[in-house]
Amino acid sequence: MAIGEYLLGPRVELGLDDERFPDVLRQIPDPPERLYVIGAVEALQSGIAIVGARKATPYGKSCAKHFATLAAERGIAVISGGARGCDIAAHQAALSVGGQTVVFLGGGCDNIYPAEHVGIFQRIVEGGGAIVSEYPWSYPPMRHGFRARNRLIAGLAKATLIVEAGLPSGTFSTADEALAAGREVLAVPGAITSKTSRGANRLIQQGAIPIVDDESFEQYLFTLFGALRQERIDEGGALGLSCERVARGDAAPLLSALRAEPLSMEELNRLAREYGDKADPLTWLVVWLAEAERDRLICRYPDGRYGALLVS
């Protein structure tokens, strides 16, 4: 779907000899000969790449949104590929707090894929961000283009955060490109029972820096970017949960389990029998679930399972 008539904003072509061409992209292996940009050329600054699975779980999307929000609130550009799943969740989170975000495409900027993201991309341009490709304006999106654009995502960023990836996974190519460009790779661990977290867990095993909570992420942002623009307004823990609210006696193991992965009622019943009211664990569980939803500690997913609150 050609969308030149829909995406409005400044259009710029940058050659390698253009002083506005990002220096960091000149230095990567196989630098692009040209960049085609819709939006603010000034947005092409070193930031943090946040990427993950296209067929993302609620956990993966929530992590992408959460860590993108933390970065954007501090004035750090969020860089990704605009794909379904974790990528678009990261872009939307940056937009929601007035942050800057950059999308690298696998085709031309007038041939957006996926087409349903046109509206979000327009908001990115209007918000001071940029839609970028190394391919001419109407070049069709093709498989090789998506693999190639990953080196640009990783190259513009000071570090790449993998929030969710299975095995095998196309997300791995972005991690590979980050290492090839001399950048750091960060990864959010997941449950060892989750297929969609096997890739991220494997990266950590291979030496990626684990991001296990807000503090570890914020510390690494400070290491990369120095003094940050502002402190968070929400001082809750990872995924918006404060320590005080987590400390709920016998309910704490349930909350910890739900933060690790979504659970069905059958699985929660087993935990309730172990940690809940021994006389009536089912009633105790139902009451606790209702209170935890009310207090926005957890939410119920469309498939009926309960899990960590999705960050919007």
Quick structural gist:
The chain is α/β, with parallel strands linked by helices.
Net shape: elongated
Q: Fill in the CATH topology of the largest domain.
A: Rossmann fold
Distance between the termini: 28 Å
The CATH first-level class of the largest domain comes to Alpha Beta
Largest β sheet strand count, sense and barrel closure: 9 strands, mixed
The helix tally amounts to: 12
* Average predicted confidence as pLDDT: 85
The CATH architecture designation of the largest domain is 3-Layer(aba) Sandwich
Q: What share of the residues does DSSP label as strand, in percent? A: 15-25%
- Uncertain runs with pLDDT below 50, 5 residues or more? 1-5, 229-249
| Class computed from helices, strands and strand pairing | alpha/beta
How many structural domains can be distinguished in the coordinates?
2
Q: What is the alpha-carbon Rg in Å?
A: 21 Å
Number of strands: 11
Task: Report the helical percentage.
Answer: 25-40%
- Order of H and E elements: EHEEHEHEHEHEHEHEHHHHHEE
Strand arrangement across the biggest beta sheet: 1-2-6-5-4-3-7-8-9
